[in-house]
Amino acid sequence: MKQKISIIGVPMDLGQMRRGVDMGPSVIRYAGVVERLEALGYAVEDRGDVKIGRPSTLDVKNDDNLKDLNVVIEANQTLAEEVSKAVAEDAFPLILGGDHSIAIGSLAGVADKVDQLGVIWYDAHGDLNTGETSPSGNIHGMPLAASLGIGHPSLTEIGGYAPKVRPENVVIIGARSLDEGERELIKEKGIKVFTMHEVDRLGMSKVMEQAIEHVTKNTDGVHLSLDLDALDPLYAPGVGTPVIGGPTYRETHLAMEMLAESGIITSAEFVEVNPILDVKNQTAEAAVALIGSLFGEKLL
Ligand SMILES: NC(=[NH2+])NCCC[C@H](N)C(=O)O
Ligand SMILES: [Mn+2]
Ligand SMILES: [Mn+2]
């Protein structure tokens, strides 16, 4: 892994309906992310937060079933530029959310500089909706589809090109809540998914071995998109769309440690931490501990 890490905060909360996730970047910083990474010997540059606009009225669904679309586009466009600057400076972009809609900008920023990008989507959800299939109109349920070039052009074309990733280079881990349209898309595109069924059956260790193999087959960089709601809400209660029955804190640590060992990850984001819904900043602290493992922290 690169020795220089650029942290980019994205205080976005308009991709979903529960206010508070905009404070995610600051509580993750408060939980000591910079210190943790510096202790591991990395040169960390905190580039601060991307500016997020405020619409005059909230919750506005447009005709395409895309809530607060304009602010989401604008923020992701700015984020894409920031991320691509970090990559150009040979730093590892570590993006702190914010709701998961920001993955559109993260991926737009990294995929620009990598020929074939792999993506590990560690999440309770598929985030494979479009305006047509979404039950909610919330854009945080759409970033993976958008990055595959599926959905409204105003989302798929962020960064000025599409798609950012190919379906065969994506792997989803931890899924246990998928909407009808998402299931269809998974089948149609042949996207590799390790649902909780596979995690239970194979164990996290095998799942990660297979996931790493899958995502490195035809790629020259891999982005980790980690939604804290992937973890069982027992360990990460501070999220807006919790789903019971997820991987434990330990299993997720193992996943991060195996990614660290493999050395394949070239950019990452940690999203959906909502301190208003959290218990004593537990979810932000979990995020920082997982970030530590991802960057090679070991007990002995
Ligand atoms: N990033 C997330 N937490 N996404 C949750 C999405 C929930 C649901 N599938 C939707 O489209 O609204
Ligand atoms: Mn999720
Ligand atoms: Mn998500």
Task: Spell out the key features of this protein.
Arginase, Chain A, 36% helix, binds arginine, 8-stranded parallel β-sheet, alpha/beta, binds manganese (II) ion, 300 residues, 16% strand
Bound molecules: arginine, manganese (II) ion
Shape: globular
Main β-sheet description: 8 strands, parallel
Report mean pLDDT, rounded to a whole number.
97
Number of strands: 8
Q: Spatial order of the strands in the main sheet? A: 2-1-3-8-7-4-5-6
In CATH, the homologous superfamily goes by the name: Ureohydrolase domain
CATH class designation:
Alpha Beta
- The SS-based structural class is alpha/beta
H and E string? EHHEHEHEHHEHEHHEHEH
- Residue share in β-strands: 15-25%
The CATH topology is given as: Arginase, Chain A
What is the name of the CATH architecture?
Answer: 3-Layer(aba) Sandwich
What's the structural domain tally?
Answer: 1
| Uncertain residue ranges | none
Catalytic activity: L-arginine + H2O = urea + L-ornithine
Organism: Paenalkalicoccus suaedae
EC number: 3.5.3.1
Keywords: Arginine metabolism, Hydrolase, Manganese, Metal-binding
